[in-house]
Amino acid sequence: MPAPDLVTAELTLTGRITTASNATFVGSIGDVVVVYKPIAGEKPLWDFPHGTLAHREVAAYLVSQALGWDVVPRTWLRDGPLGEGMVQLWQEPDPAQSAVDLVAAGQVPETGWKHVLEGRDENGRVVALIHEDTPALRRMAVFDIIVNNADRKGDHILAMAGGHRHGVDHGLTFHRDHKLRTVLWGWLGDALTDEEREGIGRVSEGLHGGLGQKLADLLSAEEIDSLAGRCARVRQAGQFPAPSGGMPAVPWPLF
Fold first, then answer.
1. Which of 85, 94, 111, 164 has the maximum number of C-beta atoms within 10 A of its C-beta?
2. Are residues 164 and 177 in the same domain?
3. Calpha distance 9→22 (Å, rounded)
4. Statement to judge: residues 45 and 108 lie in one domain
């Protein structure tokens, strides 16, 4: 049986993800399982233009492809049972793995993990937010910096079998103003690797060609200019930036 056309074949809803902030459904296109977020189900936000989150999710996928790191699962716009929306290939994470965790403050592993911050849980115990120290997660952190991700929660990182890490939920990206809020602050001040710098360079070059043309249908000209500026600044600095501005540096809740 030939594979279904993922853009035009019937999209059938099979369930709803009730923990999502906006209307989010699980569905199928033939035997392909997908996530579907209709534009009509997006809640208005004070700082992002209404009805643009699905477009930003697709733009994030395109930048991920330009980086060459497969951070974002395949994502596209298409019509569905509730109108046009974002559709993304479903990913099944490995339940035995966790890329981000909360542990007792005195139990932070000495190797393989990065300490981000400490706070108190609902019982008043001091806990530490940590994330793994792996190339895959570093690449996601670089991706978040250049797309200006305002909502990198721990549960938005899917730990896949074999060590790959997928990032999902990228509606709050590409704002022209600094909005970076993430749990991935463990490499603050560390030098970028050659691979990371080269990936950012591919995005910068792509903005003058095919990538820029595709993003023009999804983002405003100001947002694309801001993306170009972030790429240039990060490459020139050559290191992971520190938090800045008056906004919180981490999303809430963290997971």
1. 85
2. yes
3. 24
4. no
The answer to the question of residue 255 being in a domain is: no
Of the candidates 148, 100, 106, 151, the residue with the CA atom closest to the CA atom of residue 125: 106
Report how far residue 204's alpha carbon sits from residue 85's, in angstroms, rounded to the nearest whole number.
Answer: 27
Clarify whether residues 126 and 164 are in a common domain: no
pLDDT tens digits, residue range 163-218?
999 999 999 999 999 999 999 999 999 999 999 999 999 999 999 999 999 999 99
pLDDT at 2: 53
Span 37-58, average pLDDT: 96
pLDDT for 3: 64
* Other beta carbons within 10 Å of 165: 22
* 8 Å CB contact between 211 and 63: yes
**Within-domain flag for 7:** no
- Taking the C-alpha atoms of residue 108 and residue 250, their distance in angstroms, rounded to an integer, is 19
Give the three-state DSSP class for 201. Answer: helix
- Give the burial class of 237: count Cβ atoms within 10 A of its Cβ; 0-12 exposed, 13-18 middle, 19 or more buried: exposed
Q: Angle 80-36-143 (CA atoms, 0-180°, nearest 5)?
A: 135
- Are the beta carbons of 242 and 188 closer than 8 angstroms? yes
Measure the CA–CA gap between 116 and 187, rounded to whole angstroms: 9
Are residues 189 and 220 located together in one domain of the fold? yes
Residue 1 has pLDDT above 60, yes or no: no
CB 150 within 8 Å of CB 175: yes
Residue 108 belongs to domain spanning: 100-130
Compute the distance between CA of residue 137 and CA of residue 140 in angstroms, rounded to an integer: 5
